[in-house]
Amino acid sequence: MDIKFGNSVREAQAAKAPVVALESTVISHGLPFPQNLETAFNVEQIVASVGATPATIAVLDGTICCGLSRDELNRLATEDGIRKISRRDIAIAAAKRLTAATTVATTTLIAHAAGIEVFATGGIGGVHRGYAADVSADLPELASTPITVVCSGPKIILDVAATREWLETYGITVLGWKCDEMPGFYSRTSGMPVDERVESAEEAAAIIRTRDKLGLNGAVLVAAPVPAEFEIELAEVESLIEEALHAAERQNVKGKETTPFLLSALVEKSGGRTLAANIALLKNNAHVAAEIAVALKQS
Ligand code: PSU
Ligand code: MN
After folding, report:
1. What is the pLDDT of residues 104-126, one digit of tens each?
2. Quick check: is 23 catalytic?
């Protein structure tokens, strides 16, 4: 795969220093302006503060990029018509010289091709509620890529129980970051278990390295709960999701529009509290991912 590396990412990789991949769909389609741009800058800074190099991934005018400048992040946060691309769309975006934001699926694919071991996001995609055929391309990509993704569980707008089963069936390991329950995105709980609790980056790194030595191909998800002061309880968020799902149905929202529509409907219905929670968990996950990237290089 032809990938254009940012200077700092190229230098870090040449020095075998830790790098953390970051996705761009959350910038272009997951958060509103100007919080999307602020968050894109902030998560990069957090990764750097822990001693790893941030590598935001996107497709710019058809070029697959790994490590973006401030101007490039600005483009993703502000330009109209940026396409949200999954695996199926990469060749289209490259051939037609489009500017596109990468989902967890595409970021996983590109990060792995670029030799990056750790990736931070908010919540992964999964099985949608009420339509079990709508399975995010994130899941099969994670099942077949030996990468580590730090997230806060699947996004709670999904069928979390069905998504949990999918992860189990297809061999994706779920580690709880100082927690026993898989986090529920805006809530710290989901009622679903993790496979193993870890207390430190070193403990996670030991499991990840062993996975690599054993030649197992699935991703390790390190699931970190939203910081407590930003948590929205499961019961409260459920009623908002019901309303958002009805609005999506009334407006006939389908396919890849579904997730961005539901996230932005929740921001409105919660008076901005889901936005604050989403930003807080993105920052926290970037911190955890950087710690793990550093520990992996020391292991
Ligand atoms: N995490 C967030 N906000 C987001 C996403 C993740 O906090 O918007 C994005 C990711 O890029 C993920 C996508 O891959 O939502 C899932 O979209 P879909 O359900 O259409 O596969
Ligand atoms: Mn879908």
Report:
1. 999 999 999 999 999 999 999 99
2. yes
Structure tokens at 124: 């992964």
Ligand 1 pocket, CB under 6 A: 23, 25-26, 29-30, 103-105, 121-123, 125, 136-138, 256, 259, 263, 278, 282
Query: Whats the size of the chain, residue-wise?
Result: 299
Rounded distance from Cα 133 to ligand 2 centre (Å): 8
Q: Residue 75's pLDDT is what?
A: 98
Asked if residue 100 lies in contact with residue 93, where contact means CB atoms within 8 angstroms, the answer is yes
pLDDT tens digits for 190-219?
Answer: 999 999 999 999 999 999 999 999 999 999
- CA 61 / ligand 2 centre spacing (Å): 25
Q: Is pTM beyond 0.85 here?
A: yes
Strands 63-66 and 4-5: parallel
Structure tokens at 79: 């330009």
Residue whose tokens read 């790994």: 66
Burial of 180 (0-12, 13-18, 19+ CB in 10 A): exposed
Residue range 255-265, pLDDT digits in tens: 999 999 999 99
Nearest CA to 156 among 252, 63, 262? 262
| Domain 4-298 fold | Indigoidine synthase fold (3.40.1790)
Considering every ligand atom shown, identify the ligand nearest to the alpha carbon of residue 23 and give its number: 1
Verify whether residue 165 is a known catalytic residue. Answer: no
CA of 255 to the centre of ligand 2 (A): 5
Q: Which of 88, 102, 155 to mutate to test ligand 1, by most ligand atoms within 8 A of the CB atom?
A: 155
Q: How many Å apart are CA 82 and CA 93, to the nearest integer? A: 10
